[in-house]
Design brief:
Low-confidence stretches: none
GO molecular function: 4-(cytidine 5'-diphospho)-2-C-methyl-D-erythritol kinase activity; ATP binding
GO biological process, one term: terpenoid biosynthetic process
CATH architecture of the largest domain: 2-Layer Sandwich
Strand order of the largest sheet: 1-4-6-5
Organism: Bacteroides uniformis (strain ATCC 8492 / DSM 6597 / CCUG 4942 / CIP 103695 / JCM 5828 / KCTC 5204 / NCTC 13054 / VPI 0061)
Pathway: Isoprenoid biosynthesis; isopentenyl diphosphate biosynthesis via DXP pathway; isopentenyl diphosphate from 1-deoxy-D-xylulose 5-phosphate: step 3/6
Oligomer: single chain
Helix content: 25-40%
Order of helices and strands: EEEEEHEHHHEEEHHHHEEE
Family: Belongs to the GHMP kinase family. IspE subfamily.
Bound molecules: 4-diphosphocytidyl-2-C-methyl-D-erythritol 2-phosphate, adenosine-5'-diphosphate
Structural class: alpha+beta
Distance between the termini: 23 Å
Amino acid sequence: MLTFPNAKINLGLNITEKRPDGYHNLETIFYPVPIEDALEINILNKGNGKFRLHQAGLEIEEEAESNLVVKAYKLLDDRFNLPPVDIHLFKHIPSGAGLGGGSADAAFMLKLLNNKFELGLPDDTLEEYAAKLGADCAFFIKNRPTYAEGIGNIFSPLPLSLKGYRIWLVKPDIFVSTRDAFAKIKPHHPEMSLKEIAQLPVEEWNGRMVNDFEESVFPQFPAIGEIKEEMYRQGAVYASMSGSGSSVYGLFKEDAVLPEVDFGEKAFVYKGQFTDI
Ligand SMILES: C[C@@](CO)(OP(=O)(O)O)[C@H](O)COP(=O)(O)OP(=O)(O)OC[C@H]1O[C@@H](n2ccc(N)nc2=O)[C@H](O)[C@@H]1O
Ligand SMILES: Nc1ncnc2c1ncn2[C@@H]1O[C@H](COP(=O)(O)OP(=O)(O)O)[C@@H](O)[C@H]1O
């Protein structure tokens, strides 16, 4: 059985408070983007252990044991004693990009196991399992536009559609530490709530919808800020860094022509268009 875990972008990200436990409260909108990994499971012949992981595509440094698809399998196996599985994962979504690729793989693995082994788990239960694997992981169960608050783990659905808009996304060969990015920020509440801004036409987001991480990340890595400037030079109606970086996306009108731009040999570049959710 085969599935295609997709990435997300953050539309706005306000870091509002530092908590006594050292974490930060924030508000953001997660929106699915059609950049996809491929994930397949088959039943593994007896005598080969409980799982085998075959990886292809972009490399991830993790050992198989700490790959999030394996963690997802183990979580359900502990509860349901699943048959052994042969896992094939093709990574296309860059890691450390603020695109949630690892979380997407984990959530889609839960859904895949639920279907393959007819566990009958409803979305709410799958979301509870997903939340154990990462703060944003549960978003990928329903995989619909979502307003997130708390430490990024309390969700409510949001009526929002980017249908027709083109997206140009670039992830330069730069690693941003999420922990350091948080540490450099002075939390504050925004003047206008993100939910309100999201109801405005996309053309009115620039200057209102903000990713607070940009203020801590761009001075340290000017090349990331320059990608955002390039997006606006090319006619983006809205551009932003996603999550804690390092990817940057631009949203363009349906009829926009996106030219070839050299963002460096090792940059990941994606051009696509939103369809209906
Ligand atoms: C900020 C977001 C928004 O989408 O960034 P991206 O991962 O998408 O870039 C995520 O919530 C990130 O979540 P995640 O990437 O899972 O972060 P974690 O590994 O859990 O946390 C790394 C470190 O960031 C800090 N941290 C994380 C989340 C939070 N709400 N407050 C924090 O202060 C903590 O110091 C933590 O040790
Ligand atoms: N299946 C997976 N795909 C991507 N990253 C994974 C996976 N399993 C574990 N990881 C680890 O999770 C971390 C976060 O990756 P990811 O969610 O893709 O990026 P981001 O937090 O920037 O959205 C990486 O350090 C990576 O090594």
